[in-house]
Amino acid sequence: MISLLIASSALQLAAAELKTQAAASDMIDVEADRLDVNKAKGEAVFRGNVKAVQGNTIIKGATLTLYIDNASKKIKTMIVEKNVYIKWEDKESTCDKAVYILDEKKLTLTGNAVVTRGQEKVSGEKILVDMIKDHQVVESGKSGRVKMRVNSGSESGVLEWKK
Description:
Blueprint (H helix, E strand, L loop, with lengths): L1 E6 L19 E6 L1 E5 L4 E12 L2 E12 L6 E14 L2 E11 L4 E12 L2 E11 L4 E5 L7 E3 L14
């Protein structure tokens, strides 16, 4: 099993390449069965039983692909595929594919997307979350309708995200 420590703002595979130390909250621990890096494409693909942890955020799936800007060395996009599980803040989500665009703080969950917070739940074929604009969209698919369960007796937070 491969265990690597990477900064969410930069993928660095050798300590000699590190120019500055990232803050502890910027660090991501990633474990997988295999890692393929293509510097020319700016791509790092973790395969097999992937688990990534940053602070109290946990991401699991069959593959995790990081797209890195070659000029800035910063991660632009993270894509998690197959049996995706994400624990983020006080929520848990599952889906077939998750795409997170870091600079834009946009998260897209597709394929049987479900977000739960305690007993609250929202589900659909696709869930789009724009954390900057505080805007969410849940779309139905061929297999069903959008479904949501909220607690009417207290403040709902199943679609509340920190900016």
